[in-house]
Design brief:
Belongs to the synembryn family. The protein has about 140 residues and is mainly α. Helix content is about 45%, strand content about 5%. It is built from five helices and two strands.
Length: about 140
C-alpha cells in the first residue's frame, strides 16, 4: 500500500499520533495543504475493513500516541486501603501546589466568556490550607 492510498484515520491507527505527526513533519506535510493525491476523490476501504484479525485482538492495547502495544497495567490504587488512597491524594495535591507555587504550572479556569484565565485564588487557598495543615501536624507532635 502506498502512502497516497492511506486514509488519515488508518495512518494514525497503525502508527500512533506521535509517530504520524513526526513522519508528516519530517516530510514537510504538516502545513494543512492537501495535494491532489489526497483530494482526488478516490475512495478506499473503511478503516474497520482494513483491520486484520491480529489487530482486532490487540486493538484495545494499542497506545494511540505511540502506536505501540502495551501490556495491561493494574490499577494504581489496587490493593490500597482508603487511608492510603487519601494519603496519596494529599501527596499529589501537595506536589501540584508546589509546582504552582514555583510557577512551573499555572492553574487555569474558564471565565464567563469561555476563555482560559489564571486562578490565583486557587494558589492562595492552597497556601492557606498548607499552613493550617502544618499547624495541625505541629500540634500532634
Amino acid at each position: 500500500m502506498s502512502f497516497a492510498e492511506i486514509t488519515v484515520r488508518r495512518f494514525v491507527k497503525y502508527t500512533g499520533y506521535g509517530n504520524a505527526a513526526g513522519l508528516l513533519a519530517t516530510r514537510g506535510l504538516l502545513g494543512g495543504q492537501r495535494s491532489s493525491v489526497w483530494s482526488s476523490g478516490t475512495r478506499y476501504s473503511s478503516d474497520s475493513d482494513s483491520d486484520t484479525e491480529e489487530y482486532r485482538q490487540i486493538k484495545d492495547k494499542v497506545n494511540p500516541v505511540t502506536g505501540q502495544v502495551e501490556e495491561e497495567q493494574p490499577h494504581p490504587t489496587q490493593g490500597m486501603t482508603e487511608e492510603e488512597k487519601e494519603e496519596e491524594a494529599h501527596r499529589l495535591i501537595s506536589l501540584f501546589n508546589k509546582l504552582s507555587k514555583d510557577n512551573v504550572i499555572q492553574p487555569m479556569g474558564l471565565n464567563r466568556e469561555g476563555q482560559l484565565v489564571p486562578l490565583p485564588e486557587l494558589h492562595d487557598l492552597s497556601v492557606e490550607e498548607n499552613e493550617e495543615e502544618d499547624e495541625l501536624h505541629e500540634g500532634m507532635e
